[in-house]
Amino acid sequence: MSQSTLSTYVSRPRLGETTWVWLIKIVTGPLLVLLLILHLTVNHYLGSTSSGLMTYDDVIRYYQNPIIPAIEILFLVTVVTHCLIGLRGIILDMNPSRRVLSIVTWFLSLLGLFSVVYGIWLALTIAAKGG
What does the pLDDT look like over 74-86, one tens digit per residue? Predict the structure, then answer.
């Protein structure tokens, strides 16, 4: 394989993307797939009732295992992070000005922070219902 062909398949940060943002995106992608498989397997096959859906009481009981809220919170953080970095990447493809990119970055960061804080509060509230 020639050097130019090999460089086609090498992932690297794009213009306007820091190395840390790129690294987080690269790490959260595979982690997202693994957590999604775990989430779907546990919620829809192992934790479900005969109808295939969990009732409110099933969910409360399910969240009593301290590992479950931790995994669900990790899943939430991974989804939100990967999604918002991807959305920012799409906006980067439109070649916005530095000012617009700065506003977009702040907006997406605040949206992500709000989403994660709300999701953590919700997971911990559900876990506390059975205690």
Answer: 999 999 999 999 9
Each residue's pLDDT tens digit, 37-74: 988 887 777 766 666 677 888 888 888 989 989 999 99
What pTM value is reported for the model? 0.79
Map tokens 């109808």 to a residue. 51
Q: Give me the CATH code for the 18-129 domain, please.
A: 1.20.1300
Contacts of 120 (CB under 8 A, 6+ apart): 73, 76
Q: Cα separation of 129 and 82, whole Å? A: 30
Tokens of 60: 């409360």
Radius of gyration of the chain (CA): 19
Torsion sign over Cα 102, 105, 110, 111: positive
69 C-beta neighbours (distance < 10 Å), count: 20
Please count the other Cβ atoms lying within 10 Å of the Cβ belonging to residue 101. Answer: 16
- Taken as a whole, the chain contains a residue count of 131
